[in-house]
Amino acid sequence: MNTYLGAGADFNQTDVDVETAKAARWMFLEGYLYDKPEGKSAFTLAGQACRAGGGKVGITLSDPFCVDRHRDDFRQLIAQGMDFTIGNHEEWLSLYQTTDLEAALRSAAEVCDLVVCTHSGAPVKIIHQGARTEVAVRPVTPVDATGAGDQFAAGFLGGMAMDLGITRAGEMGVAAAAEVIAHIGPRPKRSLRAVLTEKGLM
Questions:
Q1: Contact at 8 Å (CB) between 11 and 33?
Q2: pLDDT > 90: what percent of the chain?
Q3: The pLDDT value given to residue 160
Q4: Which among 69, 80, 1 is positioned nearest to 33, based on CA atoms?
Q5: What is the CA radius of gyration of the chain?
């Protein structure tokens, strides 16, 4: 997969609407955009504004190669500026340079309030304020896994924003990811609201 970030690759502080960020209840930052100093400063400004307004700020680790490029900065960011972090098992292992996933997640949970780990067909692992939850995943053979992580995050954060609780939010994320991997392309072909309603999650 060749990811093209377009104009987003040049995102900087001048692109951040501070008042909008202050008004946000949930802000989700894309790890790919952390590649340039301008992106890092924009993340800091947006995150600080959101938190000042009482919102929650989080990041996706994006991919293991992204983590490799920014390991120390990501660790510092997660410890000092993030309320939640979402990554897959490979990204978490890379972040903490270990082959022990449980050790990596424990390290993350010591400094971050909400830690989420997806793992293909294995249960999603969530640690919230020290309490652990696992959400079952029905193994399927994906037609195209592109977009699975993004759609998981969309479902999960949608559930959190609606105050539906950790388990329901995790189930919504799993359902959204399952929908997008069933066909070619990174976006669902059906309305996620319809998908989640069909599964009794909304």
A1: yes
A2: 62
A3: 96
A4: 69
A5: 16
pTM score of the predicted model: 0.91
Q: For residue 123, what is the enclosing H or E element?
A: strand 122-128
Kindly state the tokens that stand for 148.
């699975």
Question: Could you tell me which residues come within 8 angstroms of residue 99 by beta carbon, excluding any fewer than 6 positions away?
Answer: 93
Tokens of 50: 């959101």
Q: DSSP character for 189? A: S
Q: What are phi and psi of 175, to 5 degrees?
A: -65, -40
CA angle 133, 63, 38 (to 5 degrees): 115
- Give per-residue pLDDT as tens, 88-140: 999 999 999 999 999 999 999 999 999 999 998 899 999 999 999 999 998 77
Say how far apart CA 2 and CA 21 lie, in whole Å: 30
